[in-house]
## 1
Amino acid sequence: MGAEDSGEEYLFKIVVIGDSAVGKSNLLSRYASDEFDLNTKATVGVEFQTVCVEINGKEVKAQIWDTAGQERFRAVTSAYYRGAVGALIVYDISRRTTFESVSRWLEELNTHCDTAVARILVGNKCDLEDIRDVSVEEGKSVAESEGLFFIETSALDSTNVKVAFEIAIKEIYNNIS
Ligand code: GDP
Ligand code: MG
């Protein structure tokens, strides 16, 4: 029997957090279905999307959760975090306030999840180089001091989107195997 018949299956819950309008929903739709929406959706609907990836010949299902806009009211619930094994903490490189919120999001994550959660700091909208408000070095530096992975992405032009989610998925996989 090949490894694919061994019946092993992994389901990883990953949450995407960060201030309103940093691009969380678009990162997810770009990754899960290669779609991008220029307008901020008055989001409702799907709580999560499931993406299947193969790591070391094993099928992994990444169940990626989107806030559906509750973050606007600072009311992301504990149900959102429950069982998460990975998190993308997203800010917008063209809006410094969203970067300054990262520490608050990390605190919230830490109160709901244990420290073993794989955490990636994501500076999104790197296509907006001409109105950049947070340097790559600043992002790296915060990530280093907090012990996070770091990457800049663009949900608009697809830069590093797949890579960002796959860093999280591989790190989770390494944590458990
Ligand atoms: P959320 O509130 O964090 O889920 O953010 P959304 O995904 O709804 O995106 C907010 C706005 O930013 C929308 O108008 C998107 O079109 C835009 N946006 C999202 N990602 C990017 C990106 O990578 N580059 C640019 N230029 N705009 C983006
Ligand atoms: Mg959203």
## 2
Amino acid sequence: PASDPDLVERALRAKAALGDRLFVLGHHYQRDEVIRFADVTGDSFKLAKDAAARPEAEFIVFCGVHFMAESADILTSPAQRVVLPDLAAGCSMADMATFDQVEEAWDVLTEMGVADVTVPVTYMNSSADIKAFCGRNGGTVCTSSNARRALTWAFEQGPGGPEGKGAGDRKVLFLPDQHLGRNTAVLEMGFSLDDCVVYNPHRPDGGLTEEQIRNAKVILWRGHCSVHGRFTAGCVDEVRDRIPGVNVLVHPECRHEVVTKADQVGSTEYIIKAIEQAPAGSAWAVGTELNLVKRLAARHPDKTITFLDRTVCYCSTMNRIDLPHLVWALESLVDGQVVNQITVDPGTAHWARVALDRMLALP
Ligand code: 13P
Ligand code: SF4
């Protein structure tokens, strides 16, 4: 539906009143009515890099989800204030790994004597204290655009560099998205499915035997994205029957069997570029969040772009940032009131930044 013209007018007015004091970041999964007000759009990697691009901006309004706003707070100067227009915009995947659960898992690995050859790598989609855990324990952060580079770094550089402890026999604890971890390890790095085990935080010892943990190269956390996890291998078969010659393009948060059946896999930014560069007349079935797929279809009328699933599949928490919340946040700033500020305590921020800086320095 078309945006309420009164709200559009108010958002424009508030943005103009704030001028350079304001910097609005928007993730590609945001609604059309919101993304049009973003100064910069991107996937989570690009937004992490861009967050610090406007040191003169007093306010960073983050149109995305909570973990992204936390990362923006960590990566910007203390004087800059990060606002999330709706505090209920969380991420169900990030919630699947709590700090206490991860500490417990690390205790299990420590008791077994494998923690000191294990490098924790967390997906960006995790809370700041999980990133800090990785920073403190010699690990890093990754996003869907650099997961292979981050895992390669973890295996090759690990604790103490190429010749350091555990060299040649290292493991990675990958948090919290089992699918991104498995897809990267198996499809991009040559590990076998048997090299990967899934640690279930709701079971004693992760539901794994000591032998399974000792033999594993990649210990995957039992987390997933509720949006990308909905695509099935059947969706791929169905769309291939329905649209002969269709190219299936999916995000690596999709299940392994979906990614293996697809023609291409990549982060949100990759998906956008692939569609932009595709020849006119080509057909694409895209397995990612629906706001983005609809926008791609509208932007490329010369190509057939369809959603990989037959059912509607928005990310409900991304969608919580709507125009009324954005207008409320912006007008509050105009009135001198910083609402919904996201702050990470300095101790956590320090170690999370160590992990994030390792990611940003990846070759
Ligand atoms: P990217 O932005 O890294 O593609 O990740 C997608 C996602 O699910 C963000 O929440
Ligand atoms: Fe989290 Fe998935 Fe939504 Fe991204 S799309 S914010 S991973 S639930």
